[in-house]
Predict the 3D structure of the following.
Amino acid sequence: MTGLAPWTQQVFDHVGSLSAGDRLPHALLIDGPGGWGEAQLAGQIALTLIDRGGDPRTVAHPDFRWIEGEKGTIKVDQIRSLIDFMQQTAQAGSLKVAVVDDAQQMNPSAGNALLKILEEPPPGSHLILVTDARDAMLPTVISRCQRVSVQRATREIVVSWLVEQGASADEIEPLLIEYAGAPFHILEAIQAERKSLWPTLKSARDGQNGVSDAVDNLRNEDLVDVLARWARFLHRLVVEDRVGREGVDFFGDLIETRRMALSNTGLNRPLQLERLMFKWRQLVIRDRRKIESDGRSTTSVKTN
């Protein structure tokens, strides 16, 4: 992937104008829906400030730090280490820069510790927080940052950008549904050679493969991810009014099973997939299409 995605370029240019006018705040909060290049934008801003290129997660620079969670949590010791770093004198230039990715993962102690550096920022220090769940952050942290938001782009822009990254139109279509249109999540799936769920789900419904075969096809997939992607397919069918009440109930079952998978690492994964696949085969799906309010056809998948 080269350069910024077009929907983040405008935000980058805005931040650049602040920097050029010596008006860049000590703390930026970059938020967005998730999977829209929020972290990539933060990394590009940080690299520009320290005048470096490369991958911001791995770049070696004495005046830059990239902070992310350990097993889904940013701990207070990580933030205390960050504060110590920010308070030191810059070695290679005049600025100290740090990015805290998935800032909503800060536990309460970490969030409260971060307030110290936000309330009394050292001269020449710049902190960039990134989140796709701003409401999960401490309000006191949010209030001390200047917020810049990444907005969703149109489907046409997303598809065009993904094609530019080397994806084919055929593989993009179902993934737009499975990953809620988030282009960076789609690109990550394609680069990891993660195939769409739809062929497996459709073959199970059509009787081309048995339930055990369908479950076997998903054996190497992450259960939480599979259930989220499956739920998005079903949500589309609900929105298109192609399933009745039983479809809504099945959607709830997918969400509840995903919740259990998140909290229970000992969940019998094959058994849950088998149970859900049997219910999926029994679901009545009407073969009709809806038109979106703006007059464009919805992205749809054939079920019959």
